[in-house]
Each structure stands twice: as C-alpha cells, then as structure tokens.
Amino acid sequence: MKSLQTFGWYAARIAPHLPKDVFKPVPSRLFGGLVHLLISITGIVAISVFNLNPFINLAIGILIGTSSASMGFLGHEILHGTVVRKSWLRDLLGAVAFWPLSTGPRLWRKWHNMNHHLHTQHEEHDPDAWPSMKQFVKNRLLRSIYRLPFTIRAIANFCSLTITFTVHSARMFIVYLKDFKPTKRPVVWLECVLPWSTWIGLLFIIGPIKWLFAFLIPLLIANFIVMAYISTNHRLNPLTPINDPLANSLTVTVPKWVDALHFNFSYHAEHHLFPGINPKYYPLVKTHIKRMWPERYHEMPLWKALIALWKTPRIYYEQHKLIDPHQGKVYGSLGNGLEPSKINFRKVDKKGKTLHRDA
C-alpha cells in the first residue's frame, strides 16, 4: 500500500486550480429532481386510479423505481449543502428526495456526512465499512453465512442489494438515535415515521396488488440501483487507518446519459475529496486528480466493478486484503494486488502461511 494522505492534503493541492464558482451551491439541480418527483407521483396515481394491465403496471413501477433512485442521489447532494445553503430548506428538500427510500435528513447527515465521510473505511468507526477478520470471529451469523458455497453467497449478495439500503438505514436509525440530544429525537423519529406511514397508508388505500407495483417493486429497484453504486464505492478498496480517498474510494464510469440521470454519483473519489462541491463539477476535479496522482487514482466501469464484487469475498484480512475465511482464500484489494480483469487468490493456513497461489 502506498503512503497514505488525508483528504484535506489532496484538497489543498487541487483547490487553487479550481474556479471559485465551483464552491457555490447549484439550485438549478432541483429542476432534475422535480422531473423525477413528477414521474413518481404520476406513476403512483396512474397505478392507483386505473385498472391497468399488470405488464403496464410493472413498466410504470420500474420507471418509479429508477426515478426514486435518482431522487435519492439528489437528496445526497442536497444534504451535503451543495444545492441550497439554508438549513431548513436543505432538510425539507432532502426529506422529500429521500421520501421513497424512507430515510430522514437528520439521520442521513449524522450517519453519512459526519461518520462515513470523516472515518471512511476505518475498521471501527465507518458505519458502512465491511467487517474485518477480528469482527468476523465474533459474529456467529457471519461465520454461518461464510460456510455456504461461494456461488450461493455471491447470488444471495447480489439479490440482497434490492433491500440493503432500506435495511441498513433502519439499522443506522437504531445505532445513532441515542446520539441525538433528547430535544432533537422527536424530530428524528418523525422523519423516520412519516415516510413509512405514507407507504403503509397507501397499502390500505389501494390494496396489496396495486401497492406491489406502486411501492414495493419500485423500492426494490431503487435499492438495487443505489446499492450498485454504494457497494462499489469502497468494497473493493482496503480499510485504511488514515482517511485517504484515493486509496479507499473507487470512481466508477457509466455512460454520460446515466451520469445525467444519476446526478454524477459515479464520481466517488472526487466526492470524498470535495463533499462540499456540487457533483456537477466533479469531472473537472477528476481531471486534476488524474494529472497530479494518476498512479493513485482508482476508476473502472461500473459493470466491471460489480463483476469484481461477485468474484471476491467481503471480509477484510490485514486491512488491505480480502479473505474467504473457511476456504482460506486471500485476495488483494485495489492498489494491493487486485486486478479486476484477472482476479487471483492465494490459499493460506490458519497461521497465514501461503499454501497455494491461483494461477
């Protein structure tokens, strides 16, 4: 692993080369969000009011799901303060954008902005980091899961992307609720309960079949799209004791029209260097990173990153490696021997001694 630097170290060297305008909020991004909001509302109303063919309902549900994911990406942008600056307006718009995913703005800022961004890929302090061997041996459920054949685990892993964001968000609510001041907790509860009340209320109004198309299928699709990015943001990178975004974050590449649809969420190393800059300007930040530190920067097509995730385990070994514990197969991480186009492993015994290298 190369010597690590903090995100501030990189940012201080890039910032002088950026126009001052990039540090200003970009409220025009809300127009894209309005389009996705109208698509979602129109789709839900159409499914609820009309008795449409199930295949038409499914097509509308898919459209709602893709728009819900895009709204989530915009909500992430809004709650970093890069769209509007006023705190009450930021939280209101962030709540609306995250409504389909039922995540409150205050919880998101606590969990994501404060903890994930400050402690990215830290073994103990990043709430989104995957477990190390030290944590693995203490977790009976995880040990049981890793006794399953690799292929079954890989399939289950990818299927679980359809629910992971929702489940993890609920877990973060439980973890961080106690960290809010007692006077703030009722608001945090309200931000959690209101979206779910909307969706459960919709179930009783339109019935389970229409609700399946209007909410459940879109939720699964939104989860999958959001997690396709989130799962590749860091899970191929090493754990790092110093928050170095060029070591612990991956930028994925997608077609330009997808970037437009998803508000440039693919530029993830750039986001961790400058979370206060609107993603509209991340292509410019990327140009400077690749000019200054091309050997440190990690990027690859999203599809390639997902395949690499499929082929590797998610337990960290010695921080910069990945291990399949029961099989004793050790893989590299990005910057530490992992080659996505040809993934190899070495087999180790319980003492860490190499027994075999995959050709």
From TrEMBL:
Residues 57-300 form the Fatty acid desaturase domain. GO terms for biological process: lipid biosynthetic process. The keyword Transferase does not apply. CDD domains: Delta6-FADS-like. The keyword Transmembrane helix applies. This is Acyl-CoA desaturase. One of its GO terms (molecular function) is oxidoreductase activity, acting on paired donors, with oxidation of a pair of donors resulting in the reduction of molecular oxygen to two molecules of water. Keywords: Membrane, Transmembrane, Transmembrane helix. It comes from Bacillus aquiflavi. The chain crosses the membrane at residues 30-50, 150-174, 186-206, 212-230. GO terms for cellular component: membrane.
